[in-house]
Each structure stands twice: as structure tokens, then as C-alpha cells.
Amino acid sequence: MSEGAVKKEEKPRKFQAIRGTRDLLPPETALWNRVEQTAHTVFGTFGFGEIRSPIFEWTELFARSIGAGTDVVSKEMYVLGLQHDNPTDRDLAHRRETLMFMVVSSSDKSTIDMFTLQTRKFCSDYEAALGKELVYADIGTKVALEYLKDSISYLVEDLLAQTRAGDWQERFDRTVALCKQYLELVEPTIALRPESTASVCRAYIEHGMNSLPQPVKLYYLGPMFRRERPQKGRYRQFYQIGAEVLGGSDAPAIDAEVIEMVMTFFDRLDLQGVQLDINSIGDRNCRPKYIELLRAELLKVKDQLGPDSQRRIETNPLRVLDSKLESEQGIIATLPRIADHLCEDCATHYAAVKHQLKMRGVFFRENWRLVRGLDYYMRTTFEITAQGLGSQNAVCGGGRYDGLVELLGGPPTKGIGFAIGEDRLILSLQESGKAPAQQGRDVYIAWMGERAHATAIRAAKVLRKAGFSVELPPVEQKFGKALGQADKLGAKHALILGDNEVSEGLWTLKTLADGSQAKYTEPDLLEHLRKTM
Ligand code: HAM
Questions:
Q1: Which uninterrupted H or E stretch holds 530?
Q2: What is the pLDDT of residue 137?
Q3: What is the pLDDT of residues 262-309, one digit of tens each?
Q4: pTM, whole model, 2 decimals?
Q5: What is the pLDDT averaged over residues 59-79?
Q6: Reported confidence tier of residue 88, pLDDT bands at 50, 70, 90
Q7: I need a labelling partner for 183 at 20 to 30 A (CA). Which of 13, 19, 453, 494 fits?
């Protein structure tokens, strides 16, 4: 730049919250606090204690619990950079990070070529580096490399067979999910938690909670992360309030009590239009047989189904029951129902859960199409919807997951729980007018003069200690302006302190709603405010 030239002023970038995330602001946060306080209270009365677990965990924990092939794990998880400390491997670590990023972010066709190239290069580099010196991880690494190669061939083959359009996306997603799982063998990564059940089970094992009196009843509140398409009621950082019962028996009364607890919580909040749907999805004895039956029936009507459902016949026929496609509803209604194919144990358990719910006065609707999107469920599943939420109307989802703790390396353990979408709960409360109005101040202190300032500071202290919300302006204001400000802030009273008040020891209190005012000594003022508010 030549001397004297005026450098064009660059406007500083204006930052905005990242898509799918948002700020929660007052007065709305008051409602969030009320909801959370109610959860602490209600869950406490059912004997639950709070657990606070980290917001990130090993990626594999989620892959193993929720299922590597589920949407949550294969498409929506935020996988963070490597946790690699060995400087000699830094380069490889960097490549792997790039690859992981691509794997996680590629779900459209245009990135497949790039993904394939990167994966190939990664494989050959890694192999060359490890070829000389195979370390303890060699078995895992070899498996991973072999697998990656297979996956690439699979993808390439798919790309070549373009004629089978409509098929590639599902296969690609499945391959990516498996690649991710195998990459974990090479080196573990961490992920932002998409839910908390896996973390609670990990903590149960890690802290030997199986030696505590069973069952262990825990609840949690906090942010979860899923890279979903944002819309009303669906965010990428969202909040859950959840509870889990681990250990002890799988008595149907436990299922019913957990459901009763969440319904009590909703009732306490006066949530409107609450609808509880329940189902039993069987266990490892009866579900596989039902799935085969369902698959066979679906194959008979395959041409009448849309491409998504056609694909799911192979990958996960249960999810066809989830379909919202108008044209498929008639066909789905004719499909075999799991309730008619439960094994004796599951059928007995389901009947007892329903009986227990009735004993507790909990109204429910049986919904044989209620299959949940996470792999760990068995037997009881449930979902709760509420009003005012549009298409994302599920405000709570849960179910039984016996065997999950074992899958994570713990002892055989029964488990059941739920998670409430707090964002949706709040939305529904707001839509039905349950949100608190902006909270005004109780007292605005209008002061003038140095002596009055000292008295005002003391008055603020006394009033706050007594529990009143007080606004003490930091600089002197003319009384007219101060009263205007008090009005804008929605204050109920203005405490007027000038030279006269200080000399007399009598404070003037103006009630803003009717303009009336009177003088009080300090103790009388407190007494008066306590009575009127
Ligand atoms: P989930 O059905 O994946 O289950 O999520 C539970 C609830 O979290 C949903 O019903 C919904 O209200 C809310 N939710 C999920 N994703 C989003 C999002 N992107 N934006 C806003 N809200 C969302 C679970 O997470 C299981 N861990 C529940 C469980 C606990 N099962 C047994 N124990």
C-alpha cells in the first residue's frame, strides 16, 4: 500500500450462532429453570438421584450401544479430532482425521469419489508405515485395513452399477458406518454425546454400581448433539431430561413406574395434549422370527412401496412401520403385528406392564407400529407426544434395554429409561400459554444526591436480603427519568430517596400501578412490602 493511501476500513465479521444451535434468553430461561426444578423435585420423590456425565465419550461407546448402522451414529454424530499423543504418528493421525471428517460428513453422492481416493491413500500410507513394525494393535489394524479395502471395492462396485440407482445411498451409508467402526480399531476417537443412556451404562459399570442396592435409579439433564436437519423442535444442540433404572429385576412394575414418573412430571407442568403410546418389540427369542416374517410379507408388496421402504426391507424392515408416506399406510395396516408374534415371556411381560399402568391410572394407547430408532431396545417401548409441536411432536421416548450393560462389558443387567426433549417440552408449554411473562422488578430505587446514594445502597441490600428483586441505578437520575425507567422495567414500586427522605429517616414508596405513595420507616417499609407482594 503506498504511503498516505487510506486503508479501507474492514467491517469486523458479525458472528451468529451456528446452524441448529441457539441462545436461550430471559424471560424464556425462567421457564427452563422451572421445568428443570420440577424434574429435580418429581424425580426425587420417586427416589432417583442425579448423575452428571461428560458431554463427550469414546465414539465406540455410542456405536456399540446405539448401533453403528443407526442414523444417529452413522449420520448424525459429531466426531471430534484424534486423541493421539505420539508425535511420530502425527502425520498419520492427521490423515486419519481428514478421512474421518470426510466419512462423517459424506452422505451425498458427489463426495463419494473424493472419499474413495482419500481412503485408498490413507490405506496405503498406513500400511507402509506399519508394514515395518507391527505393534500390539496389529490385529485390529490389519482387520481395519482389510475392511477398508473391501469397503472401497464395495463402493466402487456400487458406483459402477449405477443402474441400480436408489440403492446406492443406503449401501453407502452402511459402508461408511462400518468403516467408522473399524477405524475405531486403528485409533479411537471421541464424539459429542447424541444421547445419555450409553454414558449412564458406562458409568454404572465404571463405578461398580452393581454392588449398590439394586436397582440404581439415576436421572440427568443436559445438552445432546445430533447433526440433523434443523427445523421447529429439532436442533443440533438440544437438551434432554432423562432417567434410567439399572439392575435388579425386569418386573413390569418398574416399566410402569418409570412411565408413571414421566407422566406425573408432565402433569405437574400442566403440559397439554399429552398422548402416551406403548408397544413391546419382543426380545432376541421372538423378534428375529417376526422380522423374517415381516420381511417376507413386505417382499410380496415391494412394488407398491416407495424407494425408502423398499431399501429397508433388506436393511431394517421394522423401520418400514415408521413410514409416514400416505401411499404406504394402507399396506402397512395389513402387515403382521408384533404383538401377535411375541414369545410367551414377552407377551406375559407386556400384558403385565399394561395391567400395572392401569393400576396407576396412566392412560395409554397401544401402537404396534412404535419401533424406536436405536438398536438397544427390547420388550417395552414408549413414546409421548404433546400438542403444538407440528411434525416433531415426540416429547419423550424410552424403553427397556436389558443386555446393554453386558454389551458394554458389564455384568448381565436389566435396564429401562426414557429421555424427554426439553426444547420440545418448552415449546409445547409456550404454545399453550404456560410460559411465564417477563419478570419485572419488585422495587426500582430512584435516588438523588450523594447522601441518598449511600442510603439507596443500604436499602437495596436490605430489600434483596428479604428476597425482593431490586434495581439500583448506578448513576443519579432526575426523578422523572427514574420513574420512566422503573415503568419500562415493569417495576411494581419505586422507592424514592432524596435529601428529605434521608434527613427525615422516612422513605417514600410509590406504587406504580395506581400512582399512590406513602412514607415509611425502614422496618415499616419491609413489613408493608411483605404484605402486599
Ligand atoms: P430419542 O428418542 O432418540 O431417545 O430421544 C428422546 C427425545 O429427545 C425425543 O423424543 C425428542 O423429544 C428429543 N430429541 C431427539 N433429537 C432431538 C433434536 N435433534 N432436537 C430436539 N429434540 C430432540 C433417546 O435419546 C434415548 N436415549 C431415550 C432413552 C433413555 N431410552 C432409554 N433410556
A1: helix 522-532
A2: 37
A3: 999 999 999 999 999 999 999 999 999 999 999 999 999 999 999 888
A4: 0.81
A5: 85
A6: very low
A7: 19
* Grid-cell match 418409570, residue found: 258
Instruction: Tell me which H or E stretch contains 486.
Output: helix 479-488
Distance in angstroms (rounded) separating the CA atoms of residues 483 and 481: 5
pLDDT bucket at 54, cuts 50 / 70 / 90: very high
The sign of the CA dihedral 98, 104, 105, 108 is: positive
Cα→Cα distances 296→102, 189, 248, 338, 359, Å: 36, 39, 38, 14, 39
CA-nearest residue for atom 1, ligand 1, is 397
For residue 259 the three cell numbers come to 412411565
- d(C-alpha 511, C-alpha 153), whole Å: 79
Non-local CB neighbours of 354 within 8 Å, separated by 6+ positions: 278, 364, 366
Q: How many CB atoms lie within 10 A of CB 477?
A: 16
3-state DSSP: the chain helix, strand, coil percent, rounded to 5?
A: 50, 15, 35
Q: Atom 17 of ligand 1 has which residue's CA nearest to it?
A: 234
Q: Within a 10 A sphere around the Cβ of 345, how many other Cβ atoms?
A: 14
Residue 151 corresponds to which amino acid? S
**What does the angle CA 356 – CA 359 – CA 364 come to, to the nearest 5 degrees?**
70
Distance, in Å, from the CA atom of 465 to the CA atom of 452, rounded to the nearest integer, reads 20
Unique residue bearing C-alpha cell 421394522: 318
The three cell numbers locating residue 433: 400459554
Q: Name the phi and psi angles at 80, rounded to 5.
A: -95, 170
Beta bridge partners of 80: 190
Whether 228 lines ligand 1, by a CB cut-off of 6 Å, is: yes
Is the four-CA dihedral 396, 402, 404, 410 of positive or negative sign? positive
Expressed in angstroms and rounded, the spacing between residue 49 Cα and the centre of ligand 1 is: 20
> What is the 8-class DSSP label of residue 234?
B
Does residue 65 line the site of ligand 1, with CB under 6 A? no
CA of 77 to the centre of ligand 1 (A): 14
How far, in Å, is the centroid of ligand 1 from the Cα of 450? 57
Residue type, 183: L
Cell of 58: 469414546
Judged against a pLDDT cut of 60, whether residue 110 lies above it is answered with no
62 touches ligand 1 (CB under 6 Å): no
Q: How far apart are CA 426 and CA 395, in angstroms?
A: 10
How many other C-beta atoms are found inside a 10 Å radius of the C-beta of residue 44? 12
What's the CA-to-centroid distance between 196 and ligand 1, angstroms?
9
Q: Which atom of ligand 1 is nearest to the CA of 395?
A: 12
Q: Say what the pLDDT of residue 324 is.
A: 85
